[in-house]
Amino acid sequence: MQNIERKVPWNVIAESVRGSSHKRNGLPNQDAYLVTKLEGADSSLILAVSDGHGSAFSFRSDQGARMAVRICSDLLTEMVRESSRSQNRASEIKRAVEEKLPKEIVREWREKIDKHLKAYPISPEELDVLSTARGDSAKDRVSGNPYIIYGATLLAALITDSFIIYIQLGDGDILSVSREGEIHCPIPRDERLIGNETTSLCTKEAWRDFYINFQQLIDQPPRLILLSTDGFSNSFIDNRAFQKAAKDFVDIIQQEGPCYLKSNLEGWLNENSEKGSGDDITVGILFQDLPASGTIETNNYTI
Amino acid sequence: MAVRPGGELAARPLHFILIADCSGSMSDNGKIQALNNAIREAIPHMQTSSDDNPNAQVFVRAIKFSSGASWHIEKPTPVEDFKWFDLQASGVTDMGKALKMVADELKMPPMTDRALPPVLVLMSDGQPTDSFEDGLAELMAQGWGKKAVRIAIAIGDDCDLDVLQKFIGHNEMKPLQANNAEALVNYIRWVSTAVLKSASSPASQSQENQVSGLNIPIPVAPVNNVPNSADDVW
Lengths: 303, 234
Hints:
The complex is a heterodimer.
Chain A: H1 2-6, E1 11-17, H2 20-25, E2 31-37, E3 45-51, H3 61-82, H4 89-99, H5 101-119, H6 124-134, H7 137-144, E4 154-159, E5 163-169, E6 173-177, E7 183-184, E8 197-198, E9 211-216, E10 224-228, H8 230-233, H9 239-255, H10 258-275, E11 281-287, E12 301-302
Helix pairs in contact in A: 3-5, 9-10
Chain B: E1 12-21, H1 31-51, E2 56-66, E3 68-78, H2 95-105, E4 119-124, H3 132-140, H4 143-147, E5 149-155, H5 161-168, E6 176-178, H6 181-199, E7 205-206
Parallel strand pairs in B: 1-2, 1-4, 4-5, 5-6
Antiparallel strand pairs in B: 2-3
């Protein structure tokens, strides 16, 4: 019975909206996400989400976020493929993710930025905007660490039929809902991250701030996994109101079907931003057990 | 209409706390009344500024210190309902006690991790008579104490600027020197509008990219003109 359940393929619905404060201030949506469905026997799925910093220092963070989700997804894909013939596949991937992935992500992200900066050097206009917002000393700070310009967080989940790996750097939330409807936080909130400050890909030795949780699917897998940028949880009055959203997503999928959720999600997230945090919001929902009527197509996609 | 998932939505709370010196010397040359007038004058500007950002809910409180310290306005009051009641001056300058009481309010709970950085405005005309260092240490031991935007206004020439600089906690901003009633009005209006507006904009940034108390961009403070006559100077 358990084996049959674990063979049910995972599906994903993801959406990202520009924050209401970003609309007021003429800023772009600085979040990004990427869904990668791996072909193969176990239908592995990767969801990566990134939140580019809204600070004036990070004026290319939308691009930094897009780089982050691409690099993370590609590296995880490579690790899955490399271990595909191994007899100890789960432990091999676990070791690779824990020992190599954070450093590899940071290294590749920085390499990509170096190339981008070479192709598109910081313009005088960008520096003028920065110094107007944060004073002339801000230019020195940026030239001392140009990665700040692209600063972004990273959340990811790799799901196979036998294990799940959760990855997090910086703010944002990962929740799972059990078959019994209980909420779990695979990666607990980092108590240091208050007041709009976050650990980030742009900080020195950023790999040290990654949190990774490997979860073997010995028993029943979660009914739903939610990855969201902090604009989502910050839009609710408290944590309980936020966690209720994850439970409600389960109910909506079961009662109304995933197509209903997919078609309404953007409107809901816009309401969250307008009446709540004002921030960009990205939500990725991974789930199993689709009702017979209402299958959605999960392809690789991104923003 | 599809029912939105999740519980109640709310703008993020921004706590604005006035920390006012009510020692006996504040009664000299009408300083305490000038402070009362300046705060009262700033309220409508503060309310207008707050309206510009519907994603932040500003709550205002005030604590007073003289011989001991106590909350003058204890309940976090939505800025739209905020009213000012005159302070009276007498006693000594127990600033450390006031900072300890603020520190208690910045613990989690009652604070939550979804709040915006609080704005603390310390206004004093003298030197602490209790253990300022202990009070400051308690404040800075709180996560929200460290992340708070800390602004200090020196009222008159006799204020201990070193103490106010320690409260600010970094050298990129100096205490604001208010030597007359007009300057005090300008500074309190500035902190109630420009600083408040900056603090209410949710812009995330890397931890490495800021110093304590400077995690929001502080706008340039107003330059105060020379008073009309020597009688106007404290």
